[in-house]
Amino acid sequence: MSSENRVEVQNPLAVANYVIDLAVSEKHPVTNLKLQKILYYLQAAFLHEERQPLIDTKFSRWQFGPVSQEVYYSFNSHGASAITEPAQTIDFEEFDIETPKINLEEKYVDELKEYTINLLKIPAWELVEKTHEQALWSDYSDDIKAFSAPDYNNEEIQKYFDEGSAEELWKSN
């Protein structure tokens, strides 16, 4: 595979900020709960469609489905309210506040936009239910209740979607 056909793996907050900005512009509010599920499905989409991860994150198995902890804790102060502003980070070397943004080739930006818009149309609790139907989550329900479930890994997510075990919710119906 040549380097021009590779997805540059993105900072999780950059992808979260992209989703939030698109959610605001499309008038489909996104909560932290919904954001987490969208990020998970975007990762699954890129693993399945492009054979590469989109986001440089691990997803934890939590009570309401997959969670990128870095993103979760950046937005948990919103509770169940819609998130309308992007996350910011502090660059201590430059003493500067930054808003992480995606850095993708246009082809991948187009895919990401299409996938995100399709996922934004799905209610948060439906996304939660869909992740709970997946053996990737349900096989660990006892461990999840005991807060001892292992994180998802990209290989198992890709294999699960490659085998047709889960709906490709990022595609329009």
Describe the structure.
The protein starts with 11 loop residues before the first helix and ends in an 11-residue tail after the last helix. The chain is globular. It is mainly α. It has 8 helices and 4 strands, in the order H-H-E-E-H-E-E-H-H-H-H-H. Helix 2 (32-49) crosses helix 5 (124-133). Helices cover 47% and strands 8% of the residues.
Oligomer, anyone? Answer: single chain
Instruction: Enumerate the strands of the largest sheet in spatial order, edge to edge or round the barrel.
Output: 1-2
Number of strands: 4
Tell me the structural class.
Answer: mainly alpha
How helical, in percent, are the residues?
A: 40-55%
What keyword list fits this structure?
about 170 residues; mainly alpha; two-stranded antiparallel ribbon; two-stranded antiparallel sheet; 8 helices; globular
